[in-house]
Amino acid sequence: MSKEQLDRMENLLTQLVTSVGKTNSELQSMKEEQSSIKDGQNSMKQELSSIKQEQSSMKQELSSIKQEQSSMKQELSSIKQEQSSMKQELSSIKDEQSSIREYICSLKEGQALLRADIQAHRDETRSQYKEVILRLDSIEADQDHIWEKASRNEREIAKIKRQ
After folding, report:
1. 50 pLDDT band (50/70/90 cuts)?
2. Per-residue model confidence (pLDDT) at position 101
3. N or C: lower Cβ tally within 10 Å for the chain?
4. Distance between the two ends of the chain, CA-based, in angstroms?
5. Which Gene3D superfamilies match (predicted)?
6. pTM attached to this predicted model
7. Is residue 90 pLDDT above 90, yes or no?
8. pLDDT, mean of residues 100-121
């Protein structure tokens, strides 16, 4: 595997980690928003309770209180709609996280296959290296043998020339 491919894989993994970090921070902010909505809902419940007390003590303001109740119901309805949309968003975030996990698993499987290929190439290279070394040793032995014969032949030729 080339360095370029490894760099590309590293970049993809970096992007993936960044994406997961963004998703986690978005999820955290959604949780904070949901908490603030719950606080708002609790305060509205307290306000509703105080309105009921005012109804019993102040019958003269009954019409204005009914208008306030009506507006509060609308607000509660919008809050419920917001909560519903937040639940849908949370669900989509969970789906995205699941798909990211599957993608990470597939990347890990790909890495395992690449490592196996690299190991196979290393084994093959070692085998070829050993074969080349054996052949070089054989050639060296043949060369030594030829030099010995050449030396003997030159000595014999020198002896023959002297005779």
Report:
1. confident
2. 94
3. C
4. 69
5. 6.10.250.3110
6. 0.37
7. yes
8. 93
User: HSE of 139 in the Cβ direction (CA atoms, 13 Å)?
Assistant: 6
- The tokens of 121 are what? 């190439």
Cα–Cα distance measured from residue 144 to residue 88, given in angstroms and rounded to the nearest whole number: 83
Q: What is the DSSP string of 63-113?
A: HHHHHHHHHHHHHHHHHHHHHHHHHHHHHHHHHHHHHHHHHHHHHHHHHHH
CB 100: neighbour CB atoms within 10 A? 14
Alpha helices in 3-61 (DSSP H): 3-57
Q: How far is residue 157's CA from residue 147's CA, in Å, rounded to a whole number?
A: 15
Q: Are 13 and 107 in contact (CB under 8 A)?
A: yes
Per the structure block, which two tokens stand in for 122? 């290393």
Other residues' Cβ atoms within 10 Å of the Cβ of residue 16: 14
Above 90 in pLDDT, residue 58?
Answer: no
Mean pLDDT, to the nearest integer, of 56-74? 77
Domain ranges of the chain: 3-121
Identity (one letter) of the amino acid at 34?
Q
Which backbone phi and psi does 2 adopt, to 5 degrees? -80, 160
How many residues make up the chain in this entry? 163
Residue owning tokens 């003269």: 60
In whole angstroms, give the CA distance from residue 35 to residue 70: 25
